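Predicting structure from sequence has reshaped protein science. With that in mind, we have picked out one protein's residues alongside their backbone shape tokens:
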Amino acid sequence: MPNAKVLAKKQKDVEAFKEKFANAKLVILVDYRGINVEDITKIRAELRKDQNTEYVVAKNSILRFAVKGSEYEDIAEKLEGPTAVVFSNEDYVGPAKILYDYAKNSDFYKIKGGIMDGKVIDAEEIIKLAKLPSKEMLLTQVATALLANIRNVAVVLDQLRIQKEEANA
């Protein structure tokens, strides 16, 4: 039986993960077997560029205790083999895109599944999410569409002005 100090540390870890799971908009589980420390460091650095995104390697048993009794308890079935967890508190697409880009170029690094807004999702859904345009790209597309409409209105108004000027002349 583990000593009290070790048990207290594990309980503290479980509570910390419970809080992270509860506060995250997006959680992604990945199997990181076969990759080196340098690659993990690169992934962490890329994920840190996104605000409030954290990459954590954790024991599956700690993660199982953290999700036990929650609405996303079903994620526990994906906790097999080496597991890293990405917690994102703000962005959905950015972290998914970073992990997907790395996974598609690696024979070993695999997305296992995740949780989005409290709902358990599988790897395919995360991949679909990763293939969406980024938030900035979507905003650019909306702005472009709005500007195109404004330009069209301006052209029509200018044509009306020209017609009135010709009719008055």
